[in-house]
Amino acid sequence: MNSAPDPAPVTGGYRVQRLSHPIDASVRVPGSKSIANRALICATLAGGDSTLHNVPDGDDTAALLDCISLLGAGVRVGPSESARVEIQGTGGALRPGPMTLHARLAGTTSRFVTALCALGQGRYDVDGLPPLQSRPMAPLHDALFALGVGIHPENAWGHLPVGIIGLPDSTRNHAEGEKIPTHLNEPSARKTITMPGDISSQYITALMLIAPYLDGGLRIELNTPLVSRPYLHITAAVMASFGVSDVVVSETRIDIAAGVYSAIDYWIEPDASSASYPLAAAAICGGRVYIEGLGTESLQGDAAFVDVLAEMGCSIDRSPLGTSLQRTGDLRGVTIDMSDLSDLVPTLAVIAPFAQSATVITGVGFIRAKESDRLGDLATELRRCGIDASEFDDGIRIEPGFGRGSVLGTHHDHRLAMAFGVLGLGIDGVVVADPEVVSKSWPDFWSTLESMGARA
To answer: What's the rounded mean pLDDT across residues 29-53?
Structure first.
C-alpha cells in the first residue's frame, strides 16, 4: 500500500460527518450543465425568443449567460426558484467587437464562446481566471484557424487569453454588401477540417454548434479514435430540438449541414453527472436514493453510471420519472473503460475502497487536462486517507480498504470536491478544502449532502 502524503494545507474547509446508518432520500439535482450550455448557444443564434426551463445556477452557466449577453442576446433570468431563463436570439448576427468576454473558471464556456466569436465581426478577446488560462485550448484554436478565423494568443498558442477575429462572411446568410473572401471555400461547399477524436468533446461540440451558420455546413474528419461519444450525441440532440437535425456522428467523421436554429420552449433534464454523487452515497452507506426526473429517456451518457453501480452489486429501478438505487449487500470491484463516462471517474474512485475487490479504471488519460489532473490529483488525495490508489498513464487502480480521513485538497475542481464529500460519508475525519468550488456546477451541494443525513 502507498504511504499517505503529508496533510494538505487548509485555511478552512467543510468537515463531513460520517454516516452510521443507511440513507433513505429523494434528491433533486440541478439541470444538466452540459445540455443547458448547448441550448444557450443554440438559443443565442436562433431568431426569436426561447425560454429554457430548469437551467442550473452554477458559476459556469452564469459565465456563459454574461458572455452571450455581451454578444447581443437578450437575457432575462427568472426568480431563482423558477430556474427559468428567457433568451432573445440574435438570428446569427452577433454584436461586433471589440469586446472582452470573461469565462471565469468555466472551460466549457471559454470553448463554446471562442467558437461562437468566429461568427461575429471584429475582435473578441476571450479570457479567464489563472487556472483556466493554464488549461489547453489548442485543438479548438487549430481548427478555427484552419477555417480562416484569426487567432491571436496573448501569451502561448492554445491558451487563454486569446483574441478572435471573427469572419461574419463565413456564415450561411450574408448581410447585404458583404464580400465573400477568396480564401474560403465556394459558397454552399461544405468545409472540411481534421482534428483528433481522443480529446475533450468540448472542442468538437463547440464547432458543431456553430457549423450550421457556416456556408455549406461543416465536416470534421477524425484522425484518432473518438472518445466521449455520448457528449456529441447530446450536442446533436439539442441541435435537433432547436431545428437543426441534419447532423451525423460516426467513428471517423461528423457532418453538419447548413441551417438555422429556431426559437423554442425547452426543458433541461436533471444533470446525470451531479446525480452520481447521491447515488454514490447510497452505494457507500447502504440504503436507497431516488433521483427525481432523471429517467429512462435521458439524453445523457452519464445516466449509464447506474449500470456500473449495478455491476458492483446495487439494485436499480428506472422509470420515465426517475431513477432509484438501493444497496443492501457487499460491493464488488469492477474493471472498466470509462472513456464515455470520464466526468464520473472521481465518483467511482471514492466508491471503490468500500468494495470487496479492486477497481481498475482505464481509457481516461485525457482527464489529466480537466480542472485538475483528475488522475494524479485524485490518487494523491485518496492516499491521504490511507487508500491504496495507483495511477497509470490512462487510468487508476484502487484497492479495497482505507484508513482515516484527512484534509483533502480540491485542486480547483468541483468534481473532486463533491466526490470527497461523498467519501466522507463512509470515512471518519474527511475535511474538504476550498468547499465553495462546488459553486461551479452545484452551489447547493453541501446543503443537499446535509439533507441526506451528512450532518446532524
So the answer is: 96
Please, are residues 291 and 278 in contact by the beta-carbon 8 Å criterion? yes
Cα–Cα distances in Å, from 189 out to 219, 379, 406? 10, 49, 59
Q: Which pLDDT score is estimated for 59?
A: 87
Q: E strand or H helix at 349, and its extent?
A: helix 345-351
Residue 80 confidence (pLDDT): 73
Greater confidence (105 vs 291) lies with 291
**Positive or negative CA dihedral for 9, 14, 19, 24?**
negative
Report the C-alpha gap between 73 and 87 in whole angstroms. Answer: 6
Closest CA to 193 of 167, 214, 164: 214
For 293, counting Cβ atoms within 10 Å of its Cβ (0-12 exposed, 13-18 middle, 19+ buried), the class is: middle
Instruction: Give percent above pLDDT 70 in the chain.
Output: 92
Which residue is listed with cell 460520517?
A: 18
Q: Which pLDDT score is estimated for 169?
A: 63
Backbone angles phi, psi at 353, to 5 degrees: -65, -15
343 belongs to the catalytic site? yes
Alpha helices in 155-292 (DSSP H): 201-210, 229-241, 272-285
How does DSSP classify residue 31? B
Per-residue pLDDT at 229: 85
| Catalytic residue, candidates 343, 377, 388, 434 | 343
Peptide bond into 161 cis (omega under 30): yes
Q: Please, where are the H alpha helices in 394-450?
A: 414-423, 445-449
Q: Average pLDDT of the chain?
A: 90
Cα–Cα distance, 165 to 145 (Å, whole number) = 10
Q: Give the separation between CA 62 and CA 84, rounded to whole angstroms.
A: 13
* DSSP code for 268: P
Averaged pLDDT, 283-291 = 96
